[in-house]
Amino acid sequence: MYKHTLAAALAAIFTLPAHADVNIYGFISAGVESAKADGAAKPADNYKRTTRVTDENSRIGFKGSEDLGGGLKAVWQLEQSLRNFENGGVNDKGESATFATRNSFVGLSDAAAGTFVLGNYDSAYKRLTDVGLNVMSNTTADTHGSSSTYSRGETRLKNSVSWTSPNWAGFIAGFSYGFDEDRYVSTAATGEQRQNNDRWSLAGQYSNGGLKVGAGYDRAGDKFSSKEIKDKNGVVTGIDYTPNIDKTQFYKLAAAYSFTTGTTIGAGYEWGRVDYVGSKPDTKQNDWHLAVVQKFGAASVRASYGKLGKLDGDANADDFKASQWVLGATYDLTKQTQVFAYATKIKNSSAQNANFSVNPIYTSGQGSSKASLAKGTDPQAFGAGLRVNF
After folding, report:
1. Which residue in 290, 301, 291 sits closest to 262, CA to CA?
2. Where is the Porin domain (predicted)?
């Protein structure tokens, strides 16, 4: 990331005082890969091998601060995805890139009290339990996310308030709270009904030399399932919402150690629980992840393996398992520019559809918000790309 004093050029856009500094940062990254998804119970649900040019999670951000005196600063950030820039900014769900899609906030930072921000921001659970286990982060071989095989409890919280502590002798704590601003839904059975899908998390991270350890807890409130209401002619006349989930909880512990030889090893474990409304049994599911990175000067080789366990509480618990392996390599051409290569495969059991969190594969509904991967299908890809930081 490079710092540019651009106040004179950008003051009109951001209405900043003439003395303010604006940091512009981000990266452009793209690759070419071969991808497929096979193993489905129905051959029609397979995704035939396709060569595709992919955006690898590109982004651009603007951030800055103002010294208010006495150790207090005002801080702000606007970050947006440049996803699918190679495709006119439209992804496989038909969604277009918009402004402030990523971490965007305004807040206050104090050396003694920490940093408080309001906006759209990664949860404390996501930020502080990240110890570097995602060895090919921001590529198709990314392994973290709610629809992936590991760290399924992480999220970015809209309408949120977050606090991050100062660094206390290597320890950092954080808290996040995301407000549910759509509290009322209309149900056919009971009329207007209140839901409480607020979400909050608490996490901490400790660093000492080559050691980094993160632990966190995340809790989301109730959720409602939806069903279209149709008249006798099949025309949709409304949507009925029914209470479905009481609460969802995640616990996570992760650690990594970097040796002076350039070797980094790490492991993580996550446990999730979903409590349902009514007689439906509650479910529990864990996932774990192992990672290793070896650096050789400007080059590195990387590998990881993760497994999503059985869904305890379901009659067919073993059908919800999944696993993912990743092999990758990087080479830094300069401090800004890197080339990389990767290969990865997800193995899904018959009732599971874990997918790539970056550049997922869809077997139905492509180009719409209903795009999905058929259960029991195994996504896999190998490719290479170029990333330029700025």
Report:
1. 301
2. 7-349
194 CB neighbour count, 10 Å cutoff: 8
For residue 378, being part of any structural domain is answered with yes
68-74 CB contacts, 8 Å cutoff, 24+ apart: 68/108, 71/110, 71/111, 71/112, 72/108, 72/109, 72/110, 73/108, 73/109, 73/110, 74/106, 74/107, 74/108, 74/109
Pairing state between β 263-276 and 236-258: antiparallel
- Domain of residue 293, residue span: 29-178+193-222+245-389
How many of the other CB atoms lie within 10 Å of CB of 346? 27
Domain membership flag for residue 36: yes
User: Tokens 């999220």 belong to which residue?
Assistant: 155
Can you give the pLDDT of all 390 residues of the chain as single tens digits? 444 444 444 444 445 454 557 899 999 999 999 999 999 888 888 999 999 999 999 999 999 999 999 999 999 999 999 876 655 555 666 666 678 889 999 999 999 999 999 999 999 999 999 999 999 999 999 999 999 999 999 999 999 999 999 999 999 999 999 998 775 566 655 555 556 789 999 999 999 999 999 999 999 988 777 777 778 888 877 777 777 888 999 999 999 999 999 999 999 999 999 999 888 899 999 999 999 999 999 999 999 999 999 999 999 999 999 999 999 999 999 999 999 999 999 999 999 999 999 999 999 888 777 889 999 999 999 999 999 999
Place of tokens 């002076």: 260
Number of domains in the chain: 1
| CATH code, domain carrying 34 | 2.40.160.10
Examine residue 267 and state whether it is found in any structural domain, yes or no: yes
How many residues are recorded in the chain?
390
> Do 7 and 20 touch, CB atoms closer than 8 A?
yes
Answer whether residue 380 is part of any domain: yes
